[in-house]
Write a structure and sequence with these properties.
The chain is α+β, with helices and mostly antiparallel strands and 173 residues long. It is built from 5 helices and 5 strands, in the order H-H-H-H-E-E-E-H-E-E. It has a 5-stranded antiparallel beta sheet with strand order 1-2-3-5-4, covered by helices on one side. Helix 2 (14-35) runs antiparallel to helix 3. The longest helix is centred in the N-terminal third of the chain and has 22 residues, at 14-35. It is globular, with a radius of gyration of 17 Å. The chain starts with a helix and ends in a 9-residue tail after the last strand.
């Protein structure tokens, strides 16, 4: 990829190069995940670092992959939807049941939520609980919100992970 980026730099802006670099990284991660032989597929820390660098350098460019799920321009296995949020299965599940709950409002990260967002944040958790019940997670589950680079947030659109279906270990990460 470095050779491609070096050749592009002479003709493209840094923003274009970063977007293309992220595209190539995402393609490599997706390709490896399909073939199950590459450990970069689950390297959330690397993805979080790349996303954080892009956010710092260029702000919070829209649309994110989640806004594309919301507007249905990319497919997702949506298991719940209302006027405030939607829930869908994670494309790289880390447990037998792993889904995300995202707000339709593009809040970039949990720490960026305003006091006025309290009702929406509560709604996300209620939806997470209700969908977990519908998914049969009667023995418990984990609710996770990754925030920022050190929290391993790889997509800067607030999202709640719900993981369950097996005994989860502690401490995580």
């Amino acid at each position: 990829m470095n050779g491609v980026v070096l050749r592009l730099r002479s003709r493209c802006s840094e923003r274009t190069v970063l977007h293309l670099s992220a595209f190539f990284l995402a393609s490599r991660v997706h390709c490896c995940a399909e073939r199950s032989y590459c450990n970069t597929a689950n390297n959330e820390v690397t993805k979080a670092r790349v996303a954080d660098e892009a956010r710092k350098k260029y702000g919070n460019p829209a649309p994110t992959i989640f806004s594309k799920v919301i507007d249905k321009s990319i497919p997702a296995d949506i298991i719940y939807e209302d006027d405030k949020c939607l829930a869908f299965r994670d494309i790289s599940p880390q447990a037998p049941v792993h889904f995300l709950v995202i707000p339709r409002t593009p809040i970039p990260r949990f720490s960026a939520a305003e006091d006025e967002d309290a009702q929406l944040l509560g709604h996300l958790l209620v939806v997470a609980k209700n969908v977990a019940q519908k998914e049969g997670l009667v023995d418990g589950y984990r609710v996770v919100i990754n925030d920022g680079k050190h929290g391993a947030q790889s997509v800067y659109h607030l999202h709640v992970h719900v993981l369950g279906g097996r005994q989860l270990s502690w401490p995580p990460g």
